[in-house]
Amino acid sequence: MVRALLTAICFAAALSYSTVDTSTQAPLSRAPRNAAEFDTMFQQIKNWGRWGANDQLGSANLLTDAKRKQAIRLAKTGQSVSLSHQLMTDKADDNTSPFEHTMLTGFSMDNYRVSYHGYAHSHIDGLCHILYKDQTYNGYARADVNTDKGCTKLGIDNLKQGVITRGVLIDIPRLRGLPYLEPGTAVYVEDLEAWEKKAGVKIGPGDAILLRTGRWARRDKVGPWAVGRNAAGFHASVAPWIKARGVAFVGSDAAQDVVPSMVQDIALPVHVLLLTGLGINLLDNQDLEGVAVMAARLNRWEFMLTIAPLVVTGGTGSPANILATF
Prior knowledge:
alpha/beta, 9 helices, Glucose Oxidase, domain 1
C-alpha cells in the first residue's frame, strides 16, 4: 500500500501576510503603493459575506452547472496537456524542500514526502493558507481556523468534487514577442486587456486565468534562481479587475505576485488580495510551457481546465496535476 506523507509548510507568508522593506526596490508608481493603500483596496474589494456568513468556497461559488457544461464543450480535439511541472528532487535556489521518493522493501511499494508550498512544486492553495490581520477569507479569526490538527474551515477538502471550468492562458511573453519575462517584470491590467484583444478572448465569470511569464523556459536557459526574491508576475493593482471580471481561479508559473512587490511593506499583496480578500484558490508553479505550445498551434487560448486536489481534511492546499483539454 502506497503511503504518502504530505507536509503542508506554508511559504513566505506562513499563514499570514508578510512584510518587507521595499523602499529601495522598484519605483512605487501606482496604487496600491504602501500598506495604507493596500488596506484600502483590500477592504473595498473583499468578498467576505458575499456568499453567506458560513461560506467555505469563496469564488468557487461562481462555478455553476452551466459554466461546467460550457467548459466541457471546449474539449473539441480531445488533446490534453498537463500543467504540472515534474516534481523536483534536487535542492536548488528555487527548491528549498525537494520532493522525496523512497522505495520500500521489495521495490514494489514506496513513500512520498513533499512540502509543496513554495516556489517549486505545482500545487493549489486552500483558502485557509494566507491570513490578513489575523483573519482568513470571510473574516474568520485565526484562532477559530488554523490549528495544529489542520484548518477547521476553508480546507482544501472543500474542493473534493473537483473543478471543471474554462481556462484561459494569458501569455505575456508572446504578447511582447519575448521567450520569457525577466524577473521583477510586473503585469498590469492594460497587459491583460491587450492580451484579450490579441488572443480574441474575453475573460468572464467562473473562468480560471493562467499567467505565463516563461519562468520555466528561463530556468531551462539560465538555471534556477531565488524566485521567492525575484519573479515576474501580477502587480497588486490587477485585483479589482479580477473581481470585476468574476474570475474564480488564478494561476501562474510562479506564485502570481511580481517580486519585489512594488507595494511598500507588503511582500505578497496579490496572494493576500486574491486568497484572503476574494476567496480565490491560487494555482502556484504551474508549468505553462506545454499548454502555451498547444494553444499557439491551435490558435486557441481557452480550454477545459480540470483540477482534482487530494482530499486532505483541513489541508492548506494540495499538490495537483491540473489538466488543460483542448
